[in-house]
Write a structure and sequence with these properties.
The protein is an alpha/beta fold. Helix content is 27%, strand content 20%. It has seven helices and twelve strands. A hairpin with a 6-residue loop joins strand 7 and strand 8. The structure holds 3-methylcatechol (MBD) and fe (iii) ion. The site of fe (iii) ion has 5 residues, from strand 7.
């Protein structure tokens, strides 16, 4: 049996030095993380006989990934963001925090600062009126006893008929398909929007380039993202994934979970359309959210993940 160079005391202490262990400046937390990253990277290189060409290909890949702003997309596609959900579920269980609507990944396409509206919002700018199906989305935000929560913030965002998100897709108007809706006295939120299409990774981008090498597609089912929050309740990051989508259980980002499937109904009834103030075929989707009580103020807030246009 040959000794692994990456296991030797010399190499381990070399990486401790590279991680700043021999100085008192900087961040002890980052040093602890970095030494582990370096040591594990060295082990992978040695154990898998990574060639120099493979190593420099990976370095170049990271440069291209970052240049295209796709790092958040890749971590979703490789299941790491879903892993964080599973880890947080397990942590919750250990702490006895249970119940309510399941969490699922935020994804990389949230934009802070969407318009705030009371009770009811029109989310689309009308630019896809010719091709989109109108969607009426509504529901109640409840506590674990089933009591409605008035004044909850339902911060929701979704893609257009092409599977693209405003801000990242510069052809869309500002905050198209993004709103913050405050629930009414009965805990209800209502949105008139359009039925979204599923997202697909840019076929020419670095994330899809990696997925190609793994023999995988980069498609998501049609879905709607939510941040749900209310004073005294635990922040919820989740999504509704639409039941009729062929990618429902074949999501490249692994966000679909039991309890988060939206049963969208398509209605072809002129009288029903007229009573909604529209013409033609439309869709209805009802979805309620249940929030846990916040056992400490910090649990009322979303993660501090850096986000587009986030100022605080
Ligand atoms: C999306 O719309 C999304 O929700 C995720 C998780 C990744 C890429 C695009
Ligand atoms: Fe999305």
């Amino acid at each position: 049996m040959t000794v692994k160079i990456s296991d030797t005391a010399e190499i381990q202490s070399f990486f401790e030095k590279a991680a700043g262990y021999d100085n008192d400046n900087g961040s002890p937390r980052l040093k602890r993380i970095m030494v582990r990253v370096l040591q594990e990277t060295a082990k992978i290189i040695e154990d898998l006989d990574i060639t120099d060409d493979e190593f420099w290909t990976a370095v170049d890949y990271l440069n291209r990934l970052g240049a295209r702003g796709e790092a958040g997309l890749l971590v979703a596609g490789l299941g790491i963001e879903h892993f964080l959900d599973l880890l947080n579920d397990a942590r919750d269980e250990a702490l006895g925090l249970a119940g309510g609507t399941p969490r699922t990944i935020e994804g990389p396409l949230y934009v802070a600062g969407a318009p705030i509206v009371q009770g009811e919002a029109r989310m689309d700018d009308g630019s896809e009126d010719d091709i989109a199906t109108v969607m009426f989305l509504e529901g109640t935000v409840l506590d674990l006893d089933g009591k409605p929560i008035p004044g909850a913030t339902v911060d929701l965002w979704h893609a257009n008929t092409k599977g693209n998100y405003s801000y990242f897709d510069q052809t869309q108007s500002e905050y198209n398909l993004r709103r913050r809706i405050l629930t009414d006295a009965n805990g209800r939120y209502r949105a008139r929007s359009i039925v979204p299409s599923g997202y697909g990774c840019d076929p020419k981008g670095p994330t899809q380039e990696c997925l190609d090498q793994l023999g995988r597609h980069g498609q998501r089912p049609a879905h709607i993202h939510f941040f749900i929050s209310a004073p005294g309740y635990r922040h919820l990051t989740t999504q509704i994934n639409l039941s009729d989508d062929k990618y429902l259980w074949d999501d490249f980002a692994y966000a679909t979970r039991e309890g988060l499937i939206g049963e969208i109904r398509f209605v072809e009834d002129e009288a029903a359309a007229a009573s909604r103030g529209i013409k033609g075929r439309f869709a209805e989707l009802e979805f309620n959210f249940q929030l846990q009580k916040a056992t400490e103020p910090n649990l009322e807030k979303r993660s501090q993940r850096p986000r587009a246009l986030q100022t605080v």
